[in-house]
Amino acid sequence: MIQISAELLALSSEPALLSRNGKVLFANAAACRLLGQDCTGKPLHAVLGKEIAGVQASSFVGEVVVAGQKLLLRVNSCDGTRAFFLSVCQPVDEGVNDAFLFYLRSSLMDINLSLSVLRTRLEAARNTEPLETVRALSRSFFRLNRVLINATVVRDVEGNDICFQPQPTDLSALLHAVADSVSLYFPAFSLQVQAPESLVIPADSTLLRCLLFNLISNCIRHADGCQNISLNLRDTGERVLLSVSDDGRGIPPEAMPYVFERYRHGFELKDAGAGVGLGLTASREIAHLHGGTLLLESREGLGTAVRVSLSKNPRPIHPLLEARHAYVSELDDLTTGLADCLPDYCFGEQFMD
Question: Residues near 26 by Cβ (< 8 Å), separated by ≥ 6?
Fold first, then answer.
């Protein structure tokens, strides 16, 4: 089996390698060019790092940094042998630049101001029928604002423009606060938190809330059949592991290689309104800022789990220029973070005032 797999991978132009019992057994020519001609025979952790080597899941997707280069990683297993497929991550999109984000941000501010004025005048005139249209426009505004925030995070991290100053943060309290807020809007879902009584590490609480809302939104919006969402926090000694999992139908195997592909969320026409596919990418960049990684494991029919590792000593980043963007606006971050899945009434006048 291993010999056959090696012969097949040798024909691939995509970097690929096989491992067994924590050791690299085979690397094709493309992988040798990327990882070094002597990678075969080495311990897996020496080639792809301790975090990737330590993952127990039989199949997952994630990211690894080799020689300063970000690589997308897909892993499949069979009879104790693991196949690793690597590809270069997408570079920052030239179209998503500072001028584009500034224009979008300014336009959204104008739209929000106009909506507020219109809502106030309609309420004063007791003209309630057009308020339904205002509610629909408000929802679109918050959905666009969510896209803006995720695009800004991705752009600034990849452009080395982000200002990251982690502060002592109680992650247990953060998880409980987020779960309590989401449960108020989605009583049909069971949100369970498993975490120590307190776990404080240096972190950016605003960015982590953004990450959590992205992952929870995916569970609610995209995990067909999902009824239970679990937030788990565990201290491993060197790192902290945070996971968000659901009991939905899982992601089809053929879609797994594309979960981090930007601007592609669904694979059918019915998925066209599901989002632009930046949530996972932004969450992955937030994990990297905290000195960790983000891995996605999904088994069709059993659900999906996103596991985020966080360093207890993340490296602050001081860009040459001061921070120019707010990564979560002054608007309610829950309304923005869950805009794709909140009920319509949440965008009514009683919530917007």
Answer: 2, 5, 6, 9, 17, 18, 40
